[in-house]
Amino acid sequence: QVQLVESGGGLVQAGGSLRLSCAASGRTFSTYRMGWFRQAPGKERELVAAIGGNIGKTYYSDSVKGRFTISRDNAKNTLYLQMDSLKPEDTAVYSCAAGRVAAMARSRYAYDYWGQGTQVTVSS
Predict the structure, then answer these.
(1) Mapped to the 3 state alphabet, what secondary structure does the chain carry?
(2) Out of 35, 50, 56, 63, which residue is the most buried by the measure of CB atoms under 10 Å away?
(3) Rounded Cα distance, 85 and 39, in Å
(4) Within a 13 Å sphere around the CA of 54, how many CA atoms are in the beta-carbon half?
(5) Which residues pair with residue 49 across a beta bridge?
(6) pLDDT tens, 28-74?
């Protein structure tokens, strides 16, 4: 069983930055695929960014490409999402997710463990 705890959300003005962290339990974090998803009110959950285990191939949705950066520190069992140039449409609950297979994946069904989420609100 893997437990995921997100932190770093908050209220920021448009154009600002936030860094989200996701602390994971367990000894095999480095081999897990990891992802950041978000869900805005009335909308479906969507993948924002993903990173594979081990080598760490990355993926970004078109809406955040060039503004967000996903990274992982396997020594600290921690996943990060650096969010720059934030826009009001980035407002959502952001959740991290982990999958037992290392290959990076885009589908939410490829992830086995989920955090509770952290609120990000971007004001205009």
Answers:
(1) CCCEEEECCEEEECCCCEEEEEEECCCCHHHCEEEEEEECCCCCCEEEEEECCCCCCEEECCCCCCCEEEEEECCCCEEEEEECCCCHHHCEEEEEEEECCCCCCCCHHHCCEECCCEEEEEEC
(2) 35
(3) 19
(4) 6
(5) 36, 60
(6) 899 999 999 999 999 999 999 999 997 679 999 999 999 999 999 99
